[in-house]
Every structure is written in structure tokens, then in C-alpha cells.
Amino acid sequence: MGDHDDLRKFITDLAVVHGRVVLSSGREADWYVDLRRVTLHHQAAPLVGRVLLDLTADWEYDAVGGLTLGADPVALSMLHAAAPTGRALDAFVVRKAGKAHGLQRRIEGPEVAGRRVLAVEDTSTTGGSVLTAVEALREAEAEVVGVAVIVDRGAGDAVRAAGLPYRAAYTLADLGLVA
Questions:
Q1: Which residues of this UniProt protein bind orotate (predicted)?
Q2: 9 belongs to an annotated ligand binding site
Q3: What residues contact residue 153 under an 8 Å CB cut-off, 6+ apart?
């Protein structure tokens, strides 16, 4: 099996949790995809980076990140997966709100102004989190080239309606789940 199949197995084995849950979007579901069980796993995290780099290989960007917390391990996995290939890829973290002390930055890490960046998220239902990150990135004068997620729960239309290309490594159907 390749990276894509291996990561799908980790997701279905570790991250899919059955039971009634309320999502961050406010919607209810009979199952939850807890991707932090994968993005923070010693064997799965490297796969996350390689799969998302492959998914976005035809997009030109030199920094990756999104709204904390879901995007943070995704971006770091991509940064670490890129390094052995010789690719210089920075990561950044978008805070939910600006900081009131220190440098008062909303986007932490290397400067994003004037750079081509990729917004990422672990999973997205409405696109709300990733679009909040995109808004902050645009305010910081970054050029957002697109949005990539590990698992799409339905956010594609909202992200594309905001004028951004959107890609997901897996759909719910790929994981044997029904929306």
C-alpha cells in the first residue's frame, strides 16, 4: 500500500468515532472524525505531510498553515515532509483573535505578507474555520493559493464560493461514512 492508502487506514482505525456529537458548526452527527488522533500520531503524522504535499503538488506556495488548533499539526507535518526533499516550506499559525500583548500578531511564525500560502485544516464541514484563516491571511497581505484538508465533510462549496481552489485528500465516501 502507498501513503494515501496507509493514511486512510489510520483514519478509519483511529479517528472515526461512532456516537452522537455536536460539531463546531453546530450540526449534529452520529459519528465524528477526530483527526488529531491521526495528525498527532507518530506513524500517521508523516503520512499526513506526504499525502497533502502530493495532493497540492501542482500548486505553488512556500508557507502553509491555518486556524489553530486543527491546522497546526497538518502544517507541521507538511513542513517536515518537505524538508528531506529539499523544499523550503514554512509553517504558520493563525490565532482565532489578535494577541493583546507582545508583538500583538494574529499570525505567528515566519512573515506571510507578499508570500504565496496554502490554507489547511484537518477536516471541514462548513468551511468556517479555514475561511476565518483565509480572511486573516488576506488582511496580512498573503496570497492564498488554495485550501486543502485531510477529510472533507462538505466545506468544498463554501470555500469555492469564496473564490478559492479546494482539495481534500479524502471524502466521507472514501472513508465509508455517510453525511
A1: 125, 153
A2: no
A3: 23, 33, 123, 124, 125, 172, 179
Strands 166-171 and 143-152: parallel
Q: Dihedral of the CA atoms 176, 155, 54, 75 (nearest 10)?
A: -110
Given a cut of 90, whether residue 149 has pLDDT beyond it is yes
| Cβ–Cβ < 8 Å for 73, 163 | no
**122 labeled binding residue:** yes
123 is in an annotated binding site: yes
- Check the annotation: does 99 bind a ligand: yes
125 is in an annotated binding site: yes
At 26-63, the pLDDT tens digits run 878 888 899 999 999 999 999 999 999 999 999 999 99
pLDDT tens string 88-141 = 999 999 998 765 555 568 999 999 999 999 999 999 989 999 999 999 999 999
The pTM (predicted TM-score) of the whole model is: 0.93
Q: Is 124 annotated as a binding residue?
A: yes
